[in-house]
Amino acid sequence: MVVYITLILFLGLSWLLGPVTAVNNANIYEPLIDLVAKHLNGSHLEFDNWTREMSSSLSDEQLERVSWNIPWWHFLEEGRSSVELQKLLTPGNSFMVKLWMSLYWYLRRSYLLNEILLSNFALDLWKLHGNQPEMWNNKLQNMWQSLPRSLRLLLKSRHLCLQHKREMLYVSAENHLELGANSNCSIWESEQGMKEEHWLRLVNICDKKSLFFISLLSQGDSHVLLTGPDNLARHFCVFKGLGYFEDAANSVIMKSDCLWQLNDCRFLPMVLSVKNKN
Predict the structure, then answer these.
(1) Cβ atoms within 10 A of the Cβ of 177, count?
(2) Which CATH class, in words, describes the domain spanning 158-277?
(3) pLDDT tens digits for 133-158?
(4) Under 8 Å CB-to-CB from 149, ≥6 apart: which residues?
(5) What pLDDT, in 10s, does the model give residues 153-176?
(6) What is the rounded CA–CA span in Å between residue 46 and residue 49?
(7) SS3 for 79?
(8) DSSP state of 229
(9) Is the pTM of this model over 0.85?
């Protein structure tokens, strides 16, 4: 605690004495960077408590300066995995969010982001946007915009329409196929389950028994609609206007039958309301 208080006093003085003095005393940030490294070796709870204390003690600019100077490469060279660091930095306070963003941009610049890491970052952004909107800012917006389109869409809208890539048909409640998104029953609400890592449930808003699963590890323009959170689950496919379920083994052969596009349908109820009035 004495170390923390001394650091905070030094940082406070550098803040008050202006940029010239701050430059001369740049090395006062080094002990805090070292403390970040030390606490990253502890538990998530201990790290969360410590970063909360720092968040309330230091200014945003000071926290940001520390965050962007963390030597992430050093942790990776020591054998820490990117996923391990990512989970330890699950954003819960101002300092944690800045460290988490710093890790993301380091991995992105170093071409070390894979589908699992991108899925984790997207889900954490999704939760942060929904549960802690007061923390949302332009820097988080820029991070979101750097994600693949399909992951950006899932953060942008929890109300989706599912359109077949080849036949352009939409699937509605009870797996009925339609030429367009013509009713509220064309809307599927996205949900993320606690036990279903990297999977998203799509539940029809007219029929809760109508549901599909999509994998967040599939980050291209096309998705497959599965009957469960498992790549071996059956696929929902379309051939010449007729919907059918296909086993995973055969869906590779019938690939073009089983590809779907996700569309943002959060404004559909408003559009339908205006159309009905006219």
Answers:
(1) 14
(2) mainly beta
(3) 889 999 999 999 999 988 998 778 88
(4) 221
(5) 877 888 999 999 999 999 999 999
(6) 5
(7) coil
(8) S
(9) no
